[in-house]
Amino acid sequence: MLRTHQQRWDDADRAIGYSVTRLEEAAASDDEERLMKGVLAAEATSLRGLSTKLDVLLAVGADGAEGRHFPWPELRRMRKDVARLMQLQRQDGVGLTA
Length: 98
Known about the structure:
Blueprint: H1 2-16, H2 18-41, H3 47-61, H4 72-91
């Protein structure tokens, strides 16, 4: 009886691709985590670089385990500050690097 149920499960799993999809999802999540850590660990050499790091942190981190206890409003204000400083640099004619 158990073998029959397992066979039905395995057949259904292959038909819809559940196990394969779960493995691909886990791999994609690992890739995202690795890339995010790389971006955040890189040294920012410009306001644009700093802005990118804040964007990544806000986009990915807001759904993370820290939840509402993490200082999201403060990080959003910092992101606005960086955008304002970038705008001031553009108005002053100072070139930005990537």
